[in-house]
Each structure stands twice: as C-alpha cells, then as structure tokens.
C-alpha cells in the first residue's frame, strides 16, 4: 500500500505485530510484554503466540485480570528503566484502568516538571462487525486522544503497523496503539528493512483529484475499495490515512482538502464527538475558502454496538456508504 | 504493639539523632507553610502530615538512595524524609519555577525521580500500581532495589491496592506497602471504611496475597524503622512483599480549612500526649543521647533552614506563562 522502495514481503497485520515486537525485544532487552494470557495463548487474538518460547515468561509476562495494576505497573516500570508493552484485550477494558491512564500515565511527565521519560506502549483493539456486543465492540481512540499527555496511534495496514509499532516502542512517551480486529487478517507487502513511521505524520494511501476521504483502520480499507470502484466512473478519490490521531497531522489532511475541495471523513468512532468532529473542524478551519461543500462525516451511529448481525450491520458504515457520500459531493 | 522479631543490634546514636532531625524538619516545614497558606501566600490545597512524622521518618531511614517510593496527597513528610531539598519543595508550594516540578505540580505532586521519589499523588491508592511497577523493574533488571508505597487506610478500599498486592504477591516483588492509619479517610472515621473484623489489624487486607504482615506504633519512630528494616531485608533477598500498618493520628484536618466536625471531643488531645515531636526528644535526652542544648540547636538550625526555604520560594520567579505548553512529551513540546 504505502509506496516504499526496496524489498518487501507480504504479511497479514497480525503477523506483522508479532514479528515487530519480536524484533524490538531482540534489539532492546528492556522491552517486555505484559497482559492477560500473553504467554501461552499469545493474547486474546493469538497475536503474540510464540514470543514466550523465544523470550521466556519473564519478558512475556502473564498478569492477573487486573487492568489497573497492569497499566500502573507498566508506568512504574517505564519510570525506572524498562520499556513495557501492555496488551489490553479490548479497548472497552481501558475503562477499568481509567485512573492510571487518565491521571497517572498521561500526566506524570508534565506534572513532575517535564524531565521524566515514560517509554511505554499500550496495545489494544477496536472491534467492529464481530457480533461481540457492546462491551467487546467499539472504537475508543477518540476518547484517549482527548486526554493531553497520551499519544494515540491507529494502525490500519501491515506496513503502517510495523512502522508505527516500532516508533511507539522506541518512543520515550506513553503511546496508545489502537489496533482493529477487522484488519488483523489483511495482507499487503511490508518493507523488510527496519523503519519507523513518525508519530504525528499522516500518509496519502491513494492519490486523487476530485474528493478526499480521510479514513482509519477498517474504514481505510473500505475507502480504498470505494475509490477503486469510483475510478471506473471517472471519479478520482484521494485517500488519506491519518495514522496517528494524537498528535494529528493537520497539514497533510488540510493540504489534500485544499486540493480536492471536497471531503469525507470516516472511522469507527461514534458520530457524536468522535474523531470525525475533530477532522471536520480541522479541515474547515484550514481549508474553508477552498472547500466547495461542507465536510461529510461518516461513523458509527450513536448507539452501543448491538449483538444481532442485522442490527450491527445497520449502524456501521461500509464501502457502499462511503461511495454514496463521495457521489453526493462529486 | 510491634509484632516483628527482636533485632539484636541497637540503633546507633547518630541514626537516632538523624531521625529526630528529620522529624523536626517535617514539623517545622509544615507548621510554617500552614501559616503561609493561612496568609494566602500559598495557593491551592494543603494537606498536612503533622502528627505522622514518625512514619515517613522511620520508613525512609531504612532505605538506601537506590530504592524507590511513591507518596500520597499528604506527601511533604515523605519528601523530606527522603532527603528532598526544602527550598525546592517550598518553591513548588508557591508555584514558582524553581520548584521541584517547575510550578506544574504543587503540594500534591512533588517528585524527584532522580532521588527515587516517584511522586506524591492526588489519587488515593494511585501510587501503589506505580510502586509495583518499580518493584517489578527492580526485579527484572536484577538489582536489589526495593519499592515502597505510602498510602492511607482509605486506600485499602481501592481496587488499585488489591490488584497491586495480588500482582506483587504472585510475582514475589520487592514491594513494601506502608499503611498510614491516621484514623480518618478524608472526613470519615475508620469504622465506616472497614468491616469490624479489620479494624484492629488493617494488614488483614494483605492476607490473601501472601504478604508479610507487620503492625507497628506509628507514633514510635524506632518501631517503624525496625519494622521497615526487616521488611526491606526480606524484599532485597527475594522474600517478596510486605504490608506494614503504622497506627497513628492526623493532628490537622484532611486539608487546611477543614472544620474537623467529625473529631470527637478530647480525641486529639489524647493522641497529642503521644506526639512523637515531644516523646522522642524527651526519650533521647532522657537516655543521654542528646542534651537539652543539643536539641535546641537542632531546632534553631532547622528553623533557620525553613525560613531560608520560604525566602527562596518568595524570591523565585513564577514560571513564564509559555511554560504551560512545555514538558508534555519527551521532545519538550505540547500536543499538536
């Protein structure tokens, strides 16, 4: 997907996470993993499978079901010389660790005068379309992005998963990495070299002239499919992947909006107060005089995610809805 | 009250004098800032440690500079016992840029990570998971460092306590939990926070986690010191976590300005009979470790030190408003 020179190999996102963490643990023995069932099963999505055999259960450390302690002890370890990577099974479970995220992890460096490095990563996943019902299905990256002091990354493709995860592990700041259950099995070429994608830098995944679609994770794949479908109708769609939600690369997004003059923003957060509001505001502020029409927002309707397939499908936008919004603007 | 084993060696005279000096420093610092707060020189909230000096002092005396600690919203005593500089502490209370946190933390958030002081904390039990992580890190880095977390009796009701001690128990981490039982959780008495079965011994909360449980008189600095030494020895030698309940009393309100409506008549006066700032100097003088004059000298010296600290704070600059945007992340900048 992302244009890269040099060698590449095709991998699924899930395998990229495993390989990347393995490489980082190989490179730096301060990096360790903790979470529920991370050893043995390899975490709830089996993503970490085999890392315990390679690095031992001291560095792939099963915790009790204790999100407060899991996140808080990672903070303490990060403050005293380690580089923890925590897996929180589902993003909804971040709520259990609320104080540690909101009041401790996010504020410790600033509150203590700015000198303290806190090199820690919290990996979690957004889930949509899995019929897992409301507590196991939702997207919450907008919620964490609203807390100053946390960096928030959304991985979407195999290539950005590698580049962003490496940057997150090597960052001296706490980084929340939101994966997405719907993209774990997506495959694409991944550069074999060791590289990082800057946290705070968006990517143009597809060049186009008529309409800009800013999309994350599963919706990025839907947007690319929509662009492909519309290309045969002579509509040229530019697809922007923000990669990180906080900090947000407003420059790349606004530049694309100014070029096309028409924008759709889409991801899996709820429409009210989701990332769409921030993206839309940023585009309106930065590209107002170049916009032909108001920014269109697409997201999950404002209900908890229901269980039954027909109900769940009803509220989550897909490729067809993205196509419709683009056609409305084009 | 102390239930730890008898130690064979006696505490050296110098250590006893050092502990007295630390307690005097805490009491003097807090008495002075109490006045400055009343005079509206110090903004924000102020939670005083007066009455509890023997706890921080005894615990920190048993630590080395390579150990870690986390503190509470009532953290001045822990910071001073840890050896933090009273100039920079006072400046932080005044919101000045020369303070420990450059004026970003204030009374409730003083930290000096280079001194192993991982922060005072405005959230009850909030520091316990962090200390657990420091203990984990110490173990993973194969050092003999220990991590100590101070918290109040109120923190025993928080999930963070239970999650942390469960984790520390399972992983046999070098973690010491110091329960500062000052009889009140904010403005509610102990008996409304805990079941009757726990009131006589709050370390019972550590029982399922397999920690070593010790209860000591929190008004007796030497008892606290000796209990902590035992727990530190155990932790350094791979023996896992301990929970030490220090039974004491908070002489002031939850925060300055608290009317203390909840305090029964006579209770404060009764506890003040056991004020460690009276009993300990009397003891040392009585045993010939210190003379009356020697004690007066210590008091005068520390009075001058705190006076200087207040002057330092007063004469320091407020941070430039632009500094509000600095220090969020490692590149020094703010969030885009």
Description of the structure:
The complex is a heterodimer of chains A (about 325) and B (about 325). Chain A is of the alpha/beta class and about 325 residues long. Chain A is built from 12 helices and 14 strands. Chain A has helices spanning about 15-25, 50-55, 65-80, 100-105, 110, 140-145, 160-170, 215-230, 250-260, 275-285, 310-315, 320-330, and strands at about 10, 30-35, 60, 85-90, 120-125, 150-155, 175-180, 185-190, 205, 210-215, 235-240, 245, 265-270, 295-300. In chain A, strand 2, helix 2 (about 50-55) and strand 3 (about 60) form a beta-alpha-beta unit. Chain A is globular, with a radius of gyration of 19 Å. The relative contact order of chain A is 0.13. With about 325 residues, chain B is an alpha/beta fold. Chain B has one domain (about 15-315): Rossmann fold (3-Layer(aba) Sandwich), CATH 3.40.50.970. In chain B, about 40% of the residues lie in helices and about 10% in strands. Chain B has helices at about 15-40, 55-60, 75-80, 85-95, 125-140, 160-170, 195-200, 220-235, 265-270, 275-285, 290-315; strands at about 70, 145-150, 175-180, 185, 190, 210-215, 240-245. Chain B has a 5-stranded parallel β-sheet with strand order 1-2-3-7-6, sandwiched between helices. Chain B has a two-stranded antiparallel sheet with strand order 4-5. The N and C termini of chain B lie far apart (about 55 Å). At the A-B interface, helix 3, helix 4 and helix 5 of A face helix 5 and helix 6 of B.
Quickly describe the structure:
Chain A is an alpha/beta fold. Chain A is built from twelve helices and 14 strands. Chain A is globular and about 55 Å long.
Mean pLDDT of chain B: 95
Helical/strand content category of chain B: alpha/beta
Distance between the termini of chain A: 25 Å
Tell me the greatest interface: A-B, 49 and 47 residues
Strand order of the largest sheet of chain B: 1-2-3-7-6
The CATH homology group name of chain B: Thiamin diphosphate (ThDP)-binding fold, Pyr/PP domains
Residue runs with pLDDT of under 50 for 5 or more positions of chain B:
1-5
Examine the secondary-structure arrangement and name the CATH architecture of the largest domain in chain A.
3-Layer(aba) Sandwich
Give the fraction of residues assigned to helices of chain B: 40-55%
Query: CATH homologous superfamily of the largest domain in chain A?
Result: Thiamin diphosphate (ThDP)-binding fold, Pyr/PP domains
Q: What is the number of helices of chain A?
A: 12
Strand order, biggest sheet of chain A? 3-2-4-5-7-6-12
Number of strands of chain A: 14
Succession of helices and strands of chain B? HHEHHHEHEEEHEHEHHH
**CATH topology value of chain B:** Rossmann fold
Structural class of chain A: alpha/beta
Helices and strands of chain A, in N-to-C order? EHEHEHEHHEHEHEEEEHEEHEHEHH
What's the end-to-end separation of chain B, in Å?
Answer: 56 Å
Principal-axes geometry of chain A comes out as globular
- The fraction of residues assigned to DSSP E strands of chain A is 15-25%
Q: Shape of chain B, please?
A: globular
InterPro entries (chain B): DH_E1 (IPR001017), PDH_E1_Alpha_Subunit (IPR050642), THDP-binding (IPR029061)
Domain Dehydrogenase E1 component (chain B): 22-321
Keywords (chain B): Oxidoreductase, Thiamine pyrophosphate
Region (Disordered) (chain B): 315-336
